[in-house]
């Protein structure tokens, strides 16, 4: 393929990927702005926002991280908390093991960039036959992360120049989980994972209280998902991803 054809192919891939990711663009930019503002108010400027979103790139965990920075949490506890909060990505990746392996070096980035929204897009896209699936996958993932980086960095910049009451902005975290919950509820035939998560959350809240229930709830939910994995019907989602 000559240079001209490569450029044309890249333009078509980029155009298709951008159209697919427009909903994520609006969601990530505004959610990222909320994170950036909260991070700046916690004493960390836009440089921190840029590199955190570039290297960590985990929306929910980044919001949790704001409260952990300077909090004295041990490294082991931080690792366990991160694995627990992001453990759902283990299950996401199972649908794309073979496809990511076939992508070679790009596969490593795809593993890193497999967020909730990117996963949903990759599962639901109908890629035109004239486009290269591997290139489309990579472009979609890269665009999604760029939206998040822009939003986080912009939010930190805004927070440093505009002084206002940030009360309520942290509700973006709650809203994020509510949206994910609703999306997963309608995306899967089996509602068992959602029900198990809800039961674990409520039970842990009652037992451990509002200040320490998250980690036990997440660990319990993951353990129950492993126990009941054969009862969870994920056939519909696997068919879409294949």
List the helices and strands and how they pair.
Blueprint: H1 3-41, H2 46-55, H3 59-68, H4 75-85, H5 88-94, H6 97-102, H7 105-112, H8 116-124, H9 133-161, H10 171-187, H11 192-208, H12 214-227, H13 235-241
Helix pairs in contact: 1-3, 1-9, 2-9, 4-12, 8-9, 11-12
Give a description of the structure.
- The C terminus is likely disordered.
- This protein folds into two domains: 169 residues, no CATH class; 55 residues, no CATH class.
- Helix 1 runs parallel beside helix 3, helix 1 runs parallel beside helix 9 and helix 4 crosses helix 12.
- The protein is globular.
- By secondary structure, it is an all-alpha fold.
- It has 13 helices and no strands.
- The longest helix has 39 residues.
């Amino acid at each position: 393929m000559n240079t001209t054809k490569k450029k044309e192919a890249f333009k078509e891939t980029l155009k298709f990927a951008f159209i697919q990711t427009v909903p994520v663009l609006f969601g990530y930019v505004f959610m990222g702005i909320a994170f950036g503002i909260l991070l700046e108010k916690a004493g960390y400027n836009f440089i921190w926002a840029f590199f955190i979103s570039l290297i960590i790139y985990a929306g929910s965990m980044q919001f949790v991280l704001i409260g952990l920075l300077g909090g004295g949490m041990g490294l082991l506890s931080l690792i366990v908390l991160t694995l627990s909060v992001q453990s759902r990505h283990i299950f996401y990746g199972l649908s794309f093991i073979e496809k990511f392996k076939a992508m070679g070096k790009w596969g490593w980035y795809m593993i890193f960039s497999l967020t909730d929204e990117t996963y949903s897009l990759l599962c639901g896209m109908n890629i035109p036959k004239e486009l290269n699936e591997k290139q489309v996958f990579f472009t979609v993932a890269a665009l999604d992360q760029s939206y998040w980086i822009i939003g986080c960095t912009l939010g930190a910049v805004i927070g440093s120049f505009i002084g206002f009451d940030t009360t309520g902005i942290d509700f973006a975290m709650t809203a994020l989980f509510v949206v994910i919950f609703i999306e997963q509820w309608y995306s899967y035939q089996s509602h068992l994972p959602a029900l198990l998560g809800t039961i674990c959350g409520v039970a842990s809240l009652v037992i451990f209280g509002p200040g320490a229930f998250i980690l036990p709830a997440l660990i319990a939910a993951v353990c129950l998902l492993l126990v009941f994995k054969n009862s969870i019907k994920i056939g519909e989602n696997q068919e879409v991803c294949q």
